[in-house]
Design a protein that fits this description.
Immunoglobulin-like; 176 residues; 7-stranded antiparallel sheet; 2 helices; single chain; mainly beta
Length: 176
């Protein structure tokens, strides 16, 4: 997975690099959509791409003010002194990233975190994530729960409507 960042703009975009044996380009299943917005924190869905193996969800989090400081703390830690060498080295981070879950049959299903990159300036912090939901859902209804209590975002549920499963599967573009 590679991330392209254009620093002149604040655009961050994921591009999936498929393995040499990839058999498909995928199909757009949904997006963009605002998933959550509370004071100082916004979570947005950039896109959902369907593959025969499942869905990939590109999500962005933007935090401002004290929420940006809290987000920054999730990915940074103070330097520590190595007891053997006496040299300072970066500290370990123990923060938690955004949690995104899918709701199926009223049971919370974790969506495995795939990748994350960040962007910041003096006023905000932005993190980009790519989540994977496998296998390809056999429903049109996809409730998502986004939460990150460490930065001030409690659980927020957004109900997405995907194309009918047969239509979505038929729209996946194969490679020759």
């Amino acid at each position: 997975m590679h991330l392209f960042v254009c620093q002149a703009q604040t655009m961050v975009w994921y591009q999936r690099f498929m393995p040499p044996d990839a058999k498909e380009l995928g199909a757009i299943a949904h997006g963009p959509k605002l998933l959550a917005q509370v004071e100082g924190v916004t979570v947005g869905l950039r896109s959902i791409v369907a593959y025969t193996s499942g869905l990939e969800l590109a999500v962005v989090v933007v935090a401002k003010g004290v929420h940006a400081d809290a987000l920054r703390r999730q990915y940074t830690a103070p330097a520590i002194t190595d007891p053997e060498t006496g040299r300072r080295r970066p500290g370990e981070t123990h923060g938690r990233p955004l949690r995104l879950r899918a709701l199926e049959d009223s049971v919370l299903q974790p969506i495995r975190h795939r990748d994350g990159q960040g962007y910041e300036n003096s006023e905000m912090q932005q993190r980009e994530y790519l989540f994977e939901l496998m296998p390809l859902p056999d429903t049109e209804d996809l409730p998502l729960i986004a939460e990150w209590p460490e930065i001030g975002l409690g659980p927020v549920t957004t109900h997405l409507k995907l194309p009918p499963p047969a239509v979505l599967a038929a729209a996946i573009i194969p490679l020759p």
